UniProtKB/TrEMBL annotation:
Keywords for this protein: Heme, Iron, Membrane, Metal-binding, Monooxygenase, Oxidoreductase, Transmembrane, Transmembrane helix
Family matches, as Gene3D superfamilies: Cytochrome P450
Gene that produces this protein: CYP4F8
Pathway: Secondary metabolite biosynthesis
Protein name: Cytochrome P450 4F8
UniProt lineage: Eukaryota, Fungi, Dikarya, Basidiomycota, Agaricomycotina
Sequence similarity: Belongs to the cytochrome P450 family.
Length: 577
């Protein structure tokens, strides 16, 4: 049966609807449920059909564990030993680097950690685009014209205009702004030790905590100030707006951000994870979180429009002189490069506002979660903390240049390893927009025992790029792939991935790679440089586990301490003499 015969599939649905219309309420409710199930089944029919090509069907993968959810629920809780993240369980990706997992209602999803397959999918961004349902969800969060949302020519045009804004010379200029905020972050950490702050809940209190807050150490939820720092950095360096999250000044925008964080955090890990899993079907998130996210987005649009308006007016007042000093921030750079563009390529005010929303969405929490794990790892590996601090203390200035920071080898290796083992974005998905043959760099064994060197996907098939799984694949990183070891980066890896940075898939690769990766790496280095000169970090005596989930809320959740699961990363912090 072809897609064009879909109306035939809907015929029984219409029959059920007719019966339902004439029956009592008692019958109507279950019948309505049946109707919904049938409609869903019919709606997903083309996707299920799309996945049935024999070469795709021949791929190994986990058995289907639910007729409704497929394998989605099997991997949402799949943290590995030692807190290593992977997007799919290693029990799947290690024996079957290229495989097939079951999606909703009998659909199939293609995944691969094979470098050749990933390079092919990422390079061919015309064929592999974001699925419409993902775009619907993203559109709610970042508006319709942000870089993340665009495909094809509009994406290429916007990306060309924005690339210089994120190049090394631009980031070099932004680093002093990162330091300004990092010093505020340092002061915030110092304020936790102010006797006037005694009794302030710096992290949730667990039984026995009163013993650890004395003796020069304090239990601190490091994730919260780091999230505030990351937001303020995007605010000031992104669009010259001090969101003032670190100094807790009231602001419509920052208050809306806080309310959204609280609302998302109130959902249990499982619930949020399921929310992500339901995304292809529902596109909806819990009502309260949705209300708070809408309020936050409205505030972001309002601030964005005001800022862009002011900057445009300043440019006009300067007679459109592109050299006029608007500010060093990303949006000012964008406006300046906009001036130099051909009329047909110029971005509109609304497009630039959507870029601001995109930077906030894509750049703040991602970087915050990486920095939180950096401190957690330093707590777990005191010898690495000593080594890193020693290297950092070889620099005399408190705010060395971008180039000096980049000359610190162990800092570079440490940041790479954090981004490898704790990739803030664990996976991304695409949909094949036409029938396509994906070549593999290493043949894999099919279910029928034959060697498969390419896979045919039909139009409409969903593909997963399992970012975090590729980062810990033994075929790429060797038998100790899941061990946290910064020194591994001293040696060039022999198996190359298409990753844009340090052979990692963290920022993916190809034309849709993360435009902000240099920004983020510089920000992480500045934060570590400043914090390690003033503080030391230890894990709590009962070593609570840190868990992440795929989905909208990227934060780490703390599991243990006899407390309910919550977004938090509690560490013991000590002021250095
Ligand atoms: C550790 C921090 C970060 C991580 C792990 C990260 C990761 C990613 C990933 C995986 C993508 C690809 C998404 C997809 O196509 O499905 C992406 C795209 C993007 N990122 Fe980042 N990102 C980070 C920081 C930033 C920052 C700081 C900014 C901006 C200030 C930023 C802006 C963007 C934008 C605009 C895109 C869309 C690029 C395009 O489609 O052309 N990111 N990022």
């Amino acid at each position: 049966m072809t897609n064009s015969s879909l109306p035939q599939v809907l015929a029984p649905v219409a029959a059920v609807a007719a019966v339902v219309a004439g029956t009592s309420l008692l019958v109507t409710v279950p019948a309505a449920l049946v109707l919904v199930a049938l409609l869903t089944w019919a709606y997903l029919y083309p996707y299920r059909r799309a996945s049935l090509h024999p070469s795709f069907a021949n791929l190994h993968g986990p058995v289907n564990s639910s007729a409704v959810f497929g394998n989605w629920r099997d991997f949402l809780d799949s943290a590995n030993d030692d807190g290593t993240d992977s997007s799919l369980p290693l029990e799947w990706t290690e024996p079957w680097p290229t495989g097939r997992i079951h999606g909703f209602f009998g659909t199939h999803i293609f995944y691969s950690t094979d470098p050749g397959a990933m390079s092919y999918m990422l390079a061919n961004d015309e064929v592999f685009q974001k699925p419409p349902r993902l775009l619907n969800l993203l559109g709610i969060l970042v508006g319709g014209q942000g870089l993340l949302m665009l495909e094809g020519n509009p994406h290429r045009r916007a990306r060309k205009a924005m690339n210089p804004t994120f190049g090394p010379p631009a980031i070099r200029e932004l680093v002093p702004l990162f330091y300004d905020k990092a010093f505020e972050l340092r002061d915030k950490f110092a304020s936790f030790f102010d006797p006037a702050n005694d009794g302030v809940a710096l992290a949730r209190r667990a039984e026995g905590d009163d013993k650890i807050v004395v003796g020069g150490r304090r239990k601190v939820d490091v994730q919260k100030p780091l999230a505030e720092f990351a937001l303020d950095v995007i605010g000031t360096a992104g669009f010259s707006h001090d969101t003032a999250a670190l100094n807790s000044s009231p602001s419509e925008f920052t208050d809306a951000w806080r309310a959204m964080q609280v609302s998302l955090g109130q959902k249990g890990k499982r619930e949020l994870a399921q929310l992500f899993a339901m995304m292809p079907v529902l596109e909806k998130i819990p009502v309260d979180a949705q209300v708070k996210m809408t309020a936050y987005n409205d505030a972001a649009v309002k601030v964005g429009k005001r800022l862009v308006g002011n900057k445009m007016a300043a440019l006009e007042a300067a007679g459109g002189d592109a050299k006029s000093e608007l500010g060093r921030d990303l949006v000012s750079l964008l406006l300046k490069s906009n001036l130099a563009s051909k009329t047909s390529e110029k971005m509109t005010t609304d497009e630039i506002v959507d870029q601001i929303r995109t930077f906030l969405f894509a750049g703040a929490e991602t970087t915050a979660v990486a920095m939180s794990y950096a401190l957690w790892r330093l707590g777990r590996h005191p010898e690495m903390q000593d080594k890193l601090r020693k290297e950092i203390l070889t620099v005399e200035e408190d705010n060395p240049s971008f180039d000096t920071l980049n000359g610190l080898t162990y800092l570079e290796y440490f940041v790479r390893e954090i981004l490898r083992i704790h990739s803030p974005v664990s996976n991304t998905i695409r949909m094949a927009m036409s029938d396509v043959v994906i070549p593999l760099s290493k043949p894999t064994k099919g279910r029928d025992g034959s060697l498969v060197d390419s896979v045919v996907l039909r139009k409409g098939t969903t593909v997963m790029i399992p970012i975090a799984s590729v980062n810990v694949a033994s075929s790429i990183w060797g038998p100790d792939a899941t061990t946290f070891n910064p020194d591994r980066h001293a040696t060039e890896p022999t198996i190359k991935t298409p990753g844009i940075y340090a052979n990692l898939m963290t920022f993916i690769g190809g034309p849709r790679n993360c435009i902000g990766y240099r920004f983020s790496i510089a920000e992480i280095k500045v934060a570590l440089f400043v914090l390690l000169r003033s503080f030391s970090f230890e894990v709590l005596p009962d070593m609570p586990e840190q868990r992440r989930m795929p989905g909208i809320d990227l934060r780490s959740y703390s599991l243990g301490q006899g407390l309910p699961l919550a977004p938090e990363m509690p560490l013991l912090v000590r002021v250095l003499e």
